[in-house]
Amino acid sequence: MKSNEIHVSSDKKQQDYSPSQRPATRKSLAWAMVREHKFGIFFFSLSYAAVFLPAAIWAFLTVLMLKSTAEGGVLPAQFGVQFLLVLCPLMALSGPGAAGLYRVARNWMRDEPRNPWDIFRSAVKDSWKHGLLLTLFTAFLPLTAYFAWVYFSGYAASPLTTAAIWVFLLINLLWQLMLPCLEVMAVTYNLSFGQMLWNGLYMTLRHPLKSLKTRLLTAVPALIACLFAFAYPGAAWQIAALLAAFYVFYGFGLRQMLFAAHGNALCEAHLNALLPGARVDIGMRSERTVPDNIS
C-alpha cells in the first residue's frame, strides 16, 4: 500500500469533548451525527441535486424518452451509448462541486463542526481535479461495460468472450465498492490519482464484506422502490417519482454520510495510522494521535 507523500488536510476540530462524552463506536458516532445534522442533511441533499443538475436533467429527459417508448414510441438505435456518452461530460462538470460536498460529509462524520460553506469552498479549491476525475470515471466505466457487452456478444459464445464480459462487469463492481474510500481520500490527502486508486483498491480488498455492506445499505431505498414497482406495475412511474423526490430532499445526504463514515473508518485505520501526528478514530472515545516514533 502506498503511504508516502500523504498529508492530512489542515481541518481542525473546533470543540473538544472529554473522552467519556464521545461515542464509543463508529456506528454510534454515525447515528449521533445523523441526528445532529437532521436539518443539514435536507440542505445537503438539495445542494447535491443542484451540483449534479446537468446530469439529472439529461437523466430526466432519458426517462421521458423511455416512457414514450413504453407507450408505443420507437427507441433510437444505440440508445444506451448515446445516453452514457452525454452523461460522462455532464458528470465531470459536476465533479468540482461534488468534491466540496464530499468534504462536508467527511467533516460531519468526524464531528468537526466547521462552517459548511467554508469547508465546501476550500475543498473545491484544493480537490476539484480529483472530484472531476472521480465523477468522470463513475460515468465512464458503465460505458466500457456496455461496449464490452455489445462487442463480445457479436462473437460466438465461448469461455473467452464470457470471461471478457465478466471482467468489465467486475471492474465496475469494484469501482462502486471503492468509491466511498476514494471520495474521502480525494478531499483529505495530497495524493496523486494513481495513489488514490492503489490505496482504494487495497482497502476495499482488505474489507470486501464491509464495503459491500455499505453499498447495499445505500441501495435499500431503490430496492424497496423496485419491489413496489414489481408488485404494482401500473404505478411504476409514480413510484420512481417518489424515489427521486426522496433522494433530492434527504436520500443524497444520508447516502453521502454513510459513504463518509465508511471511508473515514478505512482511511484512518490504514492511512492515518501510518502518519506521525495524524489522528485515528476521529470523533470517537478512542481518538488518539499517532506518535512521532511510529515504525
Provide a quick synopsis of the model.
With 295 residues, this protein is an all-alpha fold. The chain contains ten helices and two strands, in the order ααααααααααββ.
Provide a descriptive summary of the structure in words.
The protein has helices at 26-36, 38-51, 53-70, 79-108, 116-153, 159-186, 193-206, 208-218, 220-231, 236-270, and strands at 279-280, 288-289. By secondary structure, the protein is mainly alpha-helical. It has one domain. A two-stranded antiparallel sheet has the order 1-2. Helix 9 packs antiparallel against helix 10. The longest helix is centred in the middle third of the chain and has 38 residues, at 116-153. It is globular, with a radius of gyration of 21 Å.
Query: What is the typical, i.e. mean, pLDDT?
Result: 86
Q: Secondary-structure element order, as H and E?
A: HHHHHHHHHHEE
- From the N-terminal CA to the C-terminal CA, the straight-line distance is 15 Å
Oligomer: single chain
Main sheet overview: 2 strands, antiparallel
Low confidence ranges: 2-14
Total number of strands = 2
